[in-house]
Design a protein that fits this description.
The protein is an alpha+beta fold. It has one domain. The protein is about 25% helix and about 40% strand. The chain has a 3-stranded antiparallel β-sheet with strand order 1-3-2. The longest helix is centred in the middle third of the chain and has 10 residues. The two termini are about 15 Å apart.
Length: about 70
C-alpha cells in the first residue's frame, strides 16, 4: 500500500547483465528502464526518474523512482 504522492523505488541490474545470467531462462522476464517506467505509468504512477550507476561487481545498475498519482 502506498499513499498518493508516495515514492516507489525499483533497483535492478542492466538487461544485458541479467540476460547473461542463466537463471533468466527459468521464467524470469528482463525489462529495460524504459519498459519499467511504461509499466509503472500504466499502473497509475507518474513523475518517473531513471538513475544509472556503476557497481563494481555487477556493472551497470538502474534505479527507477515513480510516485503514486
Amino acid at each position: 500500500m502506498l499513499r498518493p504522492g508516495g515514492a516507489l523505488l525499483l533497483g535492478f541490474e542492466a538487461p544485458e547483465t541479467l540476460r547473461a545470467w542463466p537463471g533468466h531462462h527459468y521464467g524470469f522476464t528482463v525489462y529495460d528502464p524504459g519498459e519499467v517506467v511504461r509499466l509503472a505509468v500504466g499502473a497509475g504512477f507518474g513523475d518517473a526518474e531513471v538513475h544509472e550507476g556503476l557497481e563494481p561487481k555487477f556493472g551497470r545498475i538502474f534505479c527507477v523512482k515513480v510516485r503514486r498519482l
